[in-house]
Amino acid sequence: MKTIRYLLSFIGLMCIAQSTWALGFSSSNPETLMHFIQNNNPLVYLSAFFGLGLLLAFTPCVLPMVPILSGIIVGQRSLSSARAWRLSLAYVIGMAVTYAVAGMLAAYLGNTLQTLMQRPLIIGAFSGLFVVMALTMLGLFELRVPAFLNGRLTPVNQNNRSFLSVALMGVMSTLIVSPCVTAPLIGVLTYIGQNGQVLKGGLILFIMALGMGMPLLLVGAGYGSFLPKTGPWMVKIKQFFGILMLGIAIWMLSRVVPEPIVNVLWALLLVLASFYLGLFQTKSSLGERAMQALGLLALIGSGAMLYESQSTFLKSPTIVEATQAPFIKVDTLQAIEEHLTRAKQENKPVFLEFYATWCSDCQGMETKVFNQPEVIKAMSGLVNIKVNISTDTPEARKIKKRFAIYGLPEMIFFDAKGKEQSQLTAAGYLDKSQLLALLHRAV
């Protein structure tokens, strides 16, 4: 019966998300959503943004949080459906409050907390935290609160401490694990920035984040319902989530660590996974041999990752250069204005892409979109400028203020007369077909 209830809940959430999609929110243009807020009553746009949150729940905005929340729940000493759901709710509320507060501050101050939190030192520290959590789940050691601190915390209810710590993990995960930039988010931030409706924009972001968290609530409640309460399976489950936690740590480091090193780390993780799958142990049962087969596949995958890492080190620079998009790279507002003026004099349209080295979507477009021959050909008719605003410097803040940049990547187009084509502005990851459509309209 519980399984049917969860299935019906999931179907209901998908129906809401599909209804939102049907309203026309597939656009990557933030202005579409800003106008939607202005032209509809609160019930309509809050419901729509809740549905948008559901759509975002199945993107890299939220998916990395699933193993984090799952690991937290599985790591509890006592587990029930009610407790698992309450822990999930604490995590989701922490996430939603962070989206609202960070969004209001971003629009009001012209900068984002996520930008500040994407510095290599902070990413490295948080990755280290996940490594420590993973090692405890793998059973290598146990974290204990120091005796002097435990004595001070004794008067505080243990359950309240657990819920507070989970909520704080939701806050940190939102700021560091999920630096997600989408058209809905940029649309709301633009609305706040242009209209000064800080509280209203914060409410919209809170509702959208609750929509993003709904699948997490189902995941949390499901653990308490579907998994057996005791038994040796718990050790295997903890080890599984320990491996996933290490994967999250490597994925985070990939924003600030060179790709060949990241490949080596993935290869080492696969070797570790093969060990915990029992590849190097003597097994007799059919299930154990199946796990060993998975371990063998992991070991083979490790070899493939090492080979890929070696190939990247030895790759010819001339080959890499030949597949790069024709960008002019700048990092100052003066340089941007000079190129815009020159393009206007030469009667050429302009394509501006704003990016940061820590932005995962920016990296994705660099390696999967901008190196495609069709895209490079389509860009040949424009002056293409790539603007680096990776660090929070006064110059970067001037650029963000001049072009109203609230998230990355963001793409802005100017026509041959130097007028901004706001209808072509796009935020977040664009695949090849989406970018080609914009480039063809911009020429």
UniProtKB/TrEMBL annotation:
One Gene Ontology biological process: cell redox homeostasis
Which InterPro entries does the entry mention? Answer: Cyt_c_assmbl_TM_dom (IPR003834), Thioredoxin-like_fold (IPR012336), Thioredoxin-like_sf (IPR036249), Thioredoxin_domain (IPR013766)
Q: Name the top EC class.
A: oxidoreductase
Tell me what topology the record assigns in the membrane.
Answer: Multi-pass membrane protein
Sorted alphabetically, the keyword list is:
Cell membrane, Cytochrome c-type biogenesis, Membrane, Oxidoreductase, Transmembrane, Transmembrane helix
Instruction: Please name the SUPFAM superfamilies in this protein's record.
Output: Thioredoxin-like (SSF52833)
Domain of life, per lineage? Bacteria
Q: Which GO terms describe its molecular function?
A: protein-disulfide reductase [NAD(P)H] activity
Compartments, as annotated in UniProt: Cell membrane
* Family matches, as PROSITE patterns: THIOREDOXIN_2
Q: Where are the transmembrane segments?
A: 46-75, 87-109, 121-141, 162-192, 204-225, 237-254, 260-278
Q: Where is the Thioredoxin domain positioned along the sequence?
A: 319-443
- GO CC terms of this entry: plasma membrane
Q: What Gene3D superfamilies does this protein map onto?
A: Glutaredoxin (3.40.30.10)
Q: Which NCBIfam families match?
A: PRK00293.1 (NF001419)
Which PANTHER family does its entry note?
THIOL:DISULFIDE INTERCHANGE PROTEIN DSBD (PTHR32234:SF0)
Query: Would you tell me the protein name for this molecule?
Result: Thiol:disulfide interchange protein DsbD
The organism named in the record is Legionella beliardensis
